[in-house]
Amino acid sequence: MKIISVADVGIKEAELQLTKKAFDEIELGASMRAKNQEIFGEDLTASELVHHIVRDVRSGGDQALLRYTKLLDGLDLNSKDIMVSESELQAAADQVDAAVLAALKRAAKNIFAFHEEQKPKSWMTYRAHGSIMGQEVIPLSRVGIYVPGGTAAYPSSVLMNAIPAIVAGVDDIIMSVPTKGGVLNPYVLAAAHMLGIKKIFRVGGAQAIAAMAYGTESIPRVDKITGPGNLFVTLAKKEVYGHVDIDMLAGPSEILILADAEASPKYIAADMLSQAEHDPLASSILITDSVDLASNVRCEIQDQLQSLPRRETASASLERNGRIIVTENIQQSVHLANYSGPEHIELLVKDAFHLLPEIRCAGAVFVGSYSPEPLGDYFAGPNHVLPTGGTARFYSVLNVETFMKRTSIISYTRKALDEVSDDIIRLAETEGLEAHARAIRTRRDNIC
Fold first, then answer.
1. Least enclosed by CB within 10 Å: which of 145, 154, 330, 404?
2. Is residue 97 located within the same domain as residue 114?
C-alpha cells in the first residue's frame, strides 16, 4: 500500500492520486469481453453492452428480460415466477435468525426516526390583493428500489432504500434483486417482508433497470429508480435517466479518513478494511499530517488483513485503490479531502467538530473515534446510499425528498393581475411572444 508524501510529490500529484475514473472509462476484464463476444458477436465496452440490453428490454419486454437473465445470471425464469410469492416471503421471515431479525427491526426504528425529521411540508402564502402563492410537496406514485445481490447480499440496503420512500408516502414500492443460482437471500426477503414490500422481482443487472424504467408485461413502469449496484447497473441508470428519474450514479464504496497524530492506528486500519472488503474496486484512503501514524497504520492493516475472511478481496482493493497520503498540515488535509469528495469521511482529529464546517464535499461525515463507518451502514439512522466517485460535490445522500416532487401553486385575483399586467405584457413582447402578451391583455381589457 502506497504512502505518498505531499512534501515530496507536490499537491497536484496528491490530487491526481485521489482522482477517480469516470464510469465510462472503466475497462472490462478479459473474461467479460470474451462473454460479450459470445453473446453479442462483438467486443463491446461496458456502455455499449448496457445500451444493447436496455434497448432490447425496452422493445422486447419480458421476453428480452428473461433472455438476459438466463444469459447473464444463469437463471431460467418465466413470466409467472419472476415475482417472489407471498409464501416465499413468509418462509424467509420464518427461517431467519430471530436475533438478526430483531437487530433489523431496531435498525429500522432508527432509520424511520431519522427520516421522519426530513419530511418537508407544503405551504401557502398570501400576497397583495388576495393573491396566493404556494408549493405542494407530493410523493411519487411508484418507485423501484434495486438491492444488490451479486458478491454479497444486503438486507440493510432494503431498509435504506424503502424506509425514506415509505416516510415520503409513496403508494407503490417495487423491488428488484438479482438471483444468481436461483436462490434469494432470506434476510433480504425478510427485511422486505418486515416493511410490507410485496412486489419483489428476482431479476438484476441492466435488464432489471430497463424493466423498471420502461415497464414490461410483468414489471410495472416506475417514476424513479434508487439503489446501488455494479458498473452495469449504474450505466443502465444513466442510460434510462430522462425516461425515469434516478437517485444518483453510485459506484464502488469509498472511505477517506482524515486523522492526526492522536488517532488510533488500530481503529483506522479496521475502518479502511471495512470498505476494502466490499469490492476490489473499493477505495480506502488515509490522509494525515503525521508520518508516524501513516507508517503505523500500514503495519496494522497488514496484521488485521491476515485474519479477514474476505482477505483476497480486501488485498486487491488496497493494492489497487488504497492510499496513505501524508500532508504538511491539517489545512492541506482538508483541501485534499474536499478534492476527493468521498462517499464516507471519518474525522479522527482533535476538536473534530471544529473542523466539521470545513468539510464541504462528502456523502456522510463520521465525527470522532466512536463513530465508525459501519455504524452508519447499518444502525444510526442516516441513509447509507451515498454519492461516490467524487460526485459528493453535487449529489446528496438518499433522503425522503428523493421520493417527492414539488409543484408550484399560483392564484391571482383580477385586481392583483391588473396591477402587474403591464409588466408582464412588456416582458412577453420583449421576448417576441405575442400570444403570451394577449393572454394578459385579454383579461386586463376584459375582451371576451
1. 330
2. yes
Q: In what order do the strands lie in the sheet with 132-139?
A: 123-126, 132-139, 404-411
DSSP string, 83-110: BPPHHHHHHHHHHS-HHHHHHHHHHHHH
Whether 344 and 257 have beta carbons less than 8 Å apart is answered as no
For the question of residue 51 being annotated catalytic, the response is no
Between CA 400 and CA 162 the distance in angstroms is: 10
Supply the mean pLDDT for the chain. Answer: 94
Q: Which of 343, 346, 373, 384 is the catalytic position?
A: 343
- Cα distances (Å, whole numbers) of residue 376 to 69, 105, 363, 401: 33, 15, 11, 19
Annotated catalytic residue, options 278, 344, 346, 384:
344
Cell triple for 426: 412588456
Cα 388 to Cα 367: distance, rounded to the nearest angstrom: 19
> Domain span at residue 383?
2-23+251-393
Catalytic, 343? Answer yes
| pTM attached to this predicted model | 0.93
Could you tell me if 81 and 167 are in contact, meaning their C-beta atoms sit under 8 angstroms apart? Answer: no
Considering only CA atoms, which of 162, 220, 168 is closest in space to residue 192? 162
Number of independent structural domains in the chain: 3
pLDDT of residue 151: 54
